[in-house]
Amino acid sequence: MFGNAVFRWREDKPPAPGPAPQTRPATLGVALGGGAARGWAHIGVFRALTAAGIVPDIITGTSIGAVVGGCYAAGELDNLEAFARSLTRRRVFGLLDLNFAGSGLISGNRLSRLLDARLKDTRIETLKYGYVAIATELGTGHEVWMSRGRLVDAMRASYALPGIFQPVRINGRWLVDGALVNPVPVSAARALGAEVVIAVNLQTDVFGRGTVIHDHSADPIAEEAIGAATAGQPGEGDARRILRRQFIGDGDGPPSIPSVMVEAFNIIQDRIARSRLAGDPPDLTIGPKLGKIGSFDFHRAAEAIDVGYDAAQRMTAEIAASLTTVA
Question: According to DSSP H, which parts of the chain are helical?
Fold first, then answer.
């Protein structure tokens, strides 16, 4: 019927594969929040990231976050950690150069000299990573991003907690702690070009569950209990011990003067951070559980570092997975 016709079945061959999509690591930014002594946890965060082979391209920091981030960027994290772990209550008190005539309880010169000894005239422009320290201008309330100049001066301005440290004058501006305007500077990291931003928020366990106590007694018994706790303690006549108790606290009586100021500031900082992070959320958040560490517990560095390490280590797989993007 078909004669000598020869039939050949046509095989549909799949098209030749095209070139594989090009990938590259995403530009990673780490935004380090403020939190006074709790900021030693940032050291542990960097240790965990380094152990997992995760290296940030951009570092932005506020207050203690600016200090730890700046030391990491300058290659001085080992020395900062050794210093932090060496602190005792007595040594912390020795670093407080009290200043009753200026605009802060502490002049900050002793801390500044320690930073100067290691960082000298290191400039932000020469750092291996992109870096910004956040400060607030007195009077105007401007948010000031310090992205060039002396690293130590930028750090000092960023951690100049109002009432505790004297404001820092830079280029005609009086600057104080950046947590007043941007406690966890995600926005700065994105502005510097970060495609993936990790926020390290030190306040999540401290004030994250803040609510309203709608029925609380003002019974004077509470005041009597405070008086009883502080009465008859040894060293009442020793001026140095009284000052030490006022500025460091003793664990049993009312909180120290700096602790009251810092904790009040942290409450404000937490409320501001919630608003800023809601408007410009990070891609990932590391929230170390630091509620048991007080704002002035600088002598508890080992504990804070461990907490920071554990919090970051739990997220390293998720962070690594987020860092591959199509070119």
Answer: 41-51, 64-73, 77-86, 89-94, 109-119, 151-158, 186-191, 221-230, 239-248, 257-279, 301-313, 316-321
Read off φ and ψ for residue 14, nearest 5 degrees: -65, 150
CA dihedral 229, 230, 232, 235 (to 10 degrees): 140
Residue 250 to residues 91, 105, 179, 221: CA-CA distances in angstroms?
A: 15, 19, 27, 21
Neighbours of 271 (CB within 10 A): 14
Q: Which residue among 57, 153, 158, 177 is the active-site one?
A: 177
The yes-or-no answer on residue 63 being catalytic is: yes
Distances (CA, A) of 140 to 102, 171, 175, 261: 21, 15, 10, 22
CB burial string 10-49: b at 16+ within 10 A, e below: eeeeeeeeeeeeeeeebbbbbbbbbbbbbbbbbbbbbbbb
Decide if 236 contacts 242 (C-beta within 8 A).
yes
| Side chain identity, residue 319 | I
Using CA atoms, how far apart are residues 217 and 23, in angstroms rounded to an integer?
Answer: 61
pTM reported for the whole predicted model: 0.81
Q: What digits encode the pLDDT tens for the residues 195-223?
A: 999 999 998 876 545 667 777 777 665 44
Q: What is the DSSP letter of 203?
A: T
146, HSE (Cβ side, Cα atoms, 13 Å): 33
Question: What digits encode the pLDDT tens for the residues 245-269?
Answer: 555 555 556 777 767 777 787 788 8
Largest Cα span, the chain: 124
Marked catalytic residue, from 57, 63, 270, 297: 63
